[in-house]
Amino acid sequence: KAHELIAKYNLHLFNKDPKRNYTSVFVGDPALRHHREEYQLARLLQEFYFVHGLWVTAYVLQKAKLGRVLEISGTPQNIKIAYYVYDFVRHYINSQWESFNCDNVLNRYRKTDFAVGIIEGFRSRLETKRLKLQCQDNQFALLKIGDPLLKEYVAYKYPHTVTFSRHVSNQDETVLKAGIRAGKKLVISKGVATTAQSGKLLE
Prior knowledge:
The chain is α+β, with helices and mostly antiparallel strands. About 50% of the residues lie in helices and about 15% in strands. The protein has six helices and three strands; from the N terminus they run αβαββαααα. Strands 1-3-2 form a three-stranded antiparallel β-sheet, sandwiched between helices.
């Protein structure tokens, strides 16, 4: 039910709060290069957690050079949820990878394949849930369009943006499929900071 509540909350915002506030925060660490799963996770947050993400210039202290970091924008409530999901998925990827690669024979490129698979598997679950919501109430179809005021906020903050893509080569399909299976089992537990009953789920 949690995703349904999040969707209803945002639908209420779209219709009833024309002066809603937005904020922007960095997610993750600035780096000269980011692994492919970081971009996939950024897309997941944008598609399902009502935030807008951009890769912005940031200083990488260890390298003494400028790199990039993911910045997400949205209402404070949606930012908190998206940030929590980001950390939860990354920790899940690391724990599942330790089990899958327990003999340490696979390299960092295979971890990326596995991580991308986890995110794809989790995305497929979320998409199935969203389709069910849309069948129950066609108002939820509006949520996929996004928040027009958030788009205005981001456009005002960053009037000039560019789109880039990365070429995927040498992907291990077996490792990817193992990640997808693990991703379909991913359950986002509710954060301990909440005052709600423990054990409730976010997804």
